[in-house]
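Appendix B, Record 12. Input sequence as logged:
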Amino acid sequence: MDEKARYELPAIIAKMREVGLTAAANMTVTAQQNSTVGESPIKGPMWVSKFHLSAPENDIVQELALRVIDELGNPIKTNSQPASVGIDVEWVGYRSNVDSNAPEPPLSELENYHNLMGEAKNKGVVIYVYGGAFYLNAPARYRKITARLSKMTGLPCMMVRQRLAPQHPFPAALIDVFRGYMSLLSPHPSAPNSAFPGSSIVLAGDSSGANLALGLLQILLTLRRKGITSLEYHGRKVTLDLPAGLTLLSAVGELTNTLPSYKHNASHDVFPRDLTPTVLPGFPVCAIWPSKPPRGNIYCEGPVLAHPIASPACAEDWTGSPFMWFSSGQEQIVDGAKVIAKTAFSQGVQVVFREYEGMPHTFMWHLPGTPQSEDCWKAWAEACRSIIMGTIGSTSEKVFIDLQGTEAHDENIKQLTSLTREEASEIIKQGAKRYKPFTGKYSSL
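Logged structural output:
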């Protein structure tokens, strides 16, 4: 990044913060959500294939997920347990030799899928879990991103349409992602794909999607530690494989926003400096928020914010995890991801953590064309390819990329943060107490 761009960056980030927070504080949750979940025309260099996969009669995925959640922390209240439903999935891949305005060809979803897979140059798949603070976004908003990733990796991408909060609180979206992952290991009868072994699956995500990916990994690890290494799914016995690796962008590692980086890095990022607008007195109410009964967070009950599946920075055991690759800006939420990386590394997990000086949350989407964004894309695609091809190597390292683009490499992941998991967990536990049920009325928090 040249000197002029470095000089202008703080003002650009400040403007992003102002615009984002103004909208977040003055639009109802319904309005915010509706603005992000609509369909959009499919055009340009991408194949998109959409399928609905009904829930199996014996919904073992939901049963196992709830069992793990109950055993690791606060049980989920009966009125918060999600309904057992099917999932909508989108396959996205790169479509070659067309311009950016080329219309979607008049083909069936199955034909689109076969064309998509026909253009994939490598064997494997990326299951991409998109972000959106758990209450925003849909696959359509991430088609360009996944199509570009497909082009750069030679791999198809699959996304699961997540149920959104506040209508569908924790752990509904997580269970949707779990079902999507299982549909790769053991395909639904109406799914177009053959089975993918875990060794050919990359689990990827950004922001809250990365949080869900980490939560899914914790569920899989916990089940395997309990001796549950296979299960019946869609009428077949399937091994409960772990993915080959995770690639996580601007990962949300905890949900209370109380770790030190949240204040220390505020000048580099776009989030509020304290509580989110949706729980502040006077926030505009609507049909879906406040929830009924009221709770202190859009995504989950206040005490659940410190649960190790909802806030994976609190998770005690990552032993046996596959390769973890992180990329973050100098973000307010970076401490949560660092605690996870440090804990996993101390338990024998191979970890790479890349941090970009002065960059805000999900800068790789919001500051396109910058050297940092392009470098992140290149490193991300290479990580995905290396995971599938088995060429990662064995080195763990933290990489700090300064504004000039100079990389500082250090293999001592233990120095990634001074926080221990125990210290972070206690801060998060205390931070969860700040989230009192939001009623929409003016009252002291």
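The chain has a mean pLDDT of 95.
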